[in-house]
Predict the 3D structure of the following.
Amino acid sequence: MSFEYKQPDHKLTLIPGPIEFSNEVLASMATPSQAHTSPEFIATFQSVLQSLRKLFKSTDPKTQGYVLSGSGTLGWDVAASNLLNPGEKVLVLSTGFFSDSFADCLRVYDANVDVLTADIGDVVPLAKIEEQLKKEKYDAITITHVDTSTSVVSNVEAISQIVKKVSPETLVIVDGVCSVGVEDLEFDKWGVDFVLTASQKAIGVPAGLSILYISERALAKALNKEKDTTFFASLKRWTPIMKAYESGNGAYFATPAVQTITALKTSLDEILSQPVDERFKKHAQVSDNFKKTVEQDLGLKILPVNHDVAAHGLTAVYFPENINGPDLLKKLSEKGFVVAGGIHKQLVGKYFRVGHMGYSVYAGHVDKLTKALKESLDELK
Amino acid sequence: MSFEYKQPDHKLTLIPGPIEFSNEVLASMATPSQAHTSPEFIATFQSVLQSLRKLFKSTDPKTQGYVLSGSGTLGWDVAASNLLNPGEKVLVLSTGFFSDSFADCLRVYDANVDVLTADIGDVVPLAKIEEQLKKEKYDAITITHVDTSTSVVSNVEAISQIVKKVSPETLVIVDGVCSVGVEDLEFDKWGVDFVLTASQKAIGVPAGLSILYISERALAKALNKEKDTTFFASLKRWTPIMKAYESGNGAYFATPAVQTITALKTSLDEILSQPVDERFKKHAQVSDNFKKTVEQDLGLKILPVNHDVAAHGLTAVYFPENINGPDLLKKLSEKGFVVAGGIHKQLVGKYFRVGHMGYSVYAGHVDKLTKALKESLDELK
């Protein structure tokens, strides 16, 4: 970080991403220009790629991280175009809007997609997954770790165990956009093959980066793919670049987002300054506490009725029946808090979503929001 | 901009992108979090999309600008996957490394590519282009406005005139990565169909944005394409989003890079604070002056011998015969200037490149670099 910076007072963005950023992360965004192959930036990018290994608890040197300019969505294209050949079969576990969109992306690349859809606000039962994997042979399975539309967290470890037991060749692809940095994800141990995430959620950096992590066998498939179906999202093209930067050398395929990657280094340094399990525990505590307060003190209903499947980075709350949703969001905005509307197709207008990830969890923003929410409800009664 | 910021002293990055940024642009990168659908960010993005029309001198309301998270390279995928169907014919005018890479991208999407290659440091002769267009029917022609590897600027207006005369149905696709913001580009008047560019060159914003501009007929082709071949780079998916933001409404397909787009607003406001032709003239003056000094005062040879085809945003200079290239770059670095090595496959190691775009042109960086270059050469004699 090149200077002391204290961000001005502003409305707190407590949506499930983009989240609030630390002063140090924002200061890093204002880093003066550096050449993408300068020693300074190479050291930054090297640190980022090494830190990703720690974040994913991966010690296998044959796994590989990637940071591309793009959004979380780009990660779907990377998975679809690099890990699958046209016609290959994919089992999509759908826990909401984002799972379904991932399925749309897979179909664009001619994957043969089957979808197992969970009940709204629930996960796909493990028994159903096992049954389906026994019935059909799949080249890959996709799991939306946390579907931001429903606030449901899937049990990646348990699902992956079933895959290993029933259909070990099936690649395990995890959409970790709203989970990485808040929910535990043990890449090697759980046998995950590919995780895609983005910068603007629990990783705590402004939007603009697609962050990926791949296993040895998934990478081998990508590198040996006969027919390329993407240029910008091609792992064949990006792998030597990432390996170069991680080993301390510059390389060029497309210009990296120097400032945002510098901010990513700052945020990953902050995240890894304590054991990551401490971070996950802290998020779970704040989340559990917020959910309890919302239900017990404020008398509101939250979306996953079964708290075992409720994500820890956000809370989806039904609007109370006697209150007009937009009025509540407006009240909160007047009090300086931005929360998100609901986006699940069947529930639009019926609920709102509060993000509690990263900086906000440590800076006490959630307590302030809780107070504002209580006041707003009282005023609207 | 939310605060006063003066960037610290640092090595000046005078490469053909990323360029140096203004204090105001860097301050905008540190904008506190805003929701991507907040009124604040919608106003920012609306302004950006409206400003792009002015930058491209377009008054046709049926043209459309796009700003995606990505790099310049992503623009090639957008062109290849949205404007062409597999098997369609493309004539690539190659003036260097980047033209050839664009051709590689087009082939990934199964375009049928013919390449007309210019002599190194020259453009493809207009007569040769006309002859080829008469010989074969092309669905599109690609022009690298400025190929950063050779510092050659193509005459987009003249080429487009030939296309209109000989083969008016052919889409005119311009790679403006190293031209937009420094070379004139009259989108409507010249009959251009698609321009792709990036944030980190003459547009003056940190890397991370792919910036696109499309004509009515090219957009119609993209929207009516039968088979989608990309998800993240799909204009079918992005067009309603950009139209919404430009008309002052939020919309969601993938999370936009809020901070970098805010910096883009700041930079476009700076660029449009004077008539753009004044900006182009200023860049031409600084470029002509630098080239003259390098040749006449320093006795060095520059790459395009014919100055009529020399780009104005950078200068490619051969290392003098009696001096070791890396030594010269090291000297310059010690004096606080970062310039770029050469990347044309046939000339690697034989030349270096100096970027003179945007903030550096106005802040007197080029004069300082000239002095350091003279001193370095003297010391290495």
Q: What stands out?
A: Chain A has two domains: 12-18+275-380, 23-271. The mean pLDDT of chain A is 97.
